[in-house]
Amino acid sequence: MTQEKDERKRPNLRLVVNNPEKRVSRPAAGADEFISLEELYQQQEAIRPDFYRDMEAWQAKAYTSIERFLNLRDWPYGLDPHHGRLLVLPAALICPEMLDHGASQEDELLIYVTEDATGQGLCLSLEAILPYYSDDEAVMEDAILFAPILQYGSLFLEENRHDGMLDIIYRLAFPLYPPALTEKYLDRMFNVAAQELSVALQGLGEFPE
């Protein structure tokens, strides 16, 4: 009976393999080459015209406010106009605990601004891949079921197109009414993300007990 029970035990979640060619937050679309976080830093000024080209004024105003906030804090970031107009930051900058759970300095946190579902305002979103995976889909599903319930953000599974495995994604969405951003609002969003990422990582690190 004990042996049968042991055979039914599912493996622990394994730390993600740090392979930027296979597992990246910004999958290349079609023939586009993936641009590393370091390259985005270096090419920021050259990329900026493409990033803002043909952007609606309300969206451009929000992105400009975010850039101003990041520059005031001297936080490194890049602009990616090829995968949905993303602001790209090192994830460990917001949540240093990610490094203790298998993340690397190259792992990314994405920020983007879109029209909200009602069409009456904007939605400011923040997204990161958590540094865990398993090749057993049932394990991943159980990890989500038993993961901590977060007050603002959410955890969900998404297939990584590079290796077909499931990633655990953290996403935080803040509504903006009216479409204007303040330093206090952005500071709160990043603080919420840091706290919730820390809680999620601790919970996943204990699964299964």
Describe this structure in words.
This protein has helices at residues 2-7, 37-42, 44-52, 57-72, 91-94, 97-100, 137-146, 183-205, and strands spanning 14-15, 78-80, 86-90, 108-115, 122-129, 132-133, 154-159, 166-176. It has 209 residues and is an alpha+beta fold. The protein has one domain (32-205): Yope Regulator, Chain: A. The two termini are 20 Å apart.
The largest β sheet comes out as: 6 strands, antiparallel
Helix content: 25-40%
Q: Overall 3D geometry?
A: globular
CATH hierarchy, class: Alpha Beta
Mean pLDDT metric: 83
- The rounded distance between the terminal residues' Cα atoms is 20 Å
What is the N-to-C order of secondary-structure elements (H for helix, E for strand)? HEHHHEEHHEEEHEEH
Strand content: 15-25%
CATH topology: Yope Regulator, Chain: A
Task: Give me some keywords for this one.
single chain, 209 residues, alpha+beta, six-stranded antiparallel β-sheet, two-stranded antiparallel sheet, 8 helices, disordered N terminus
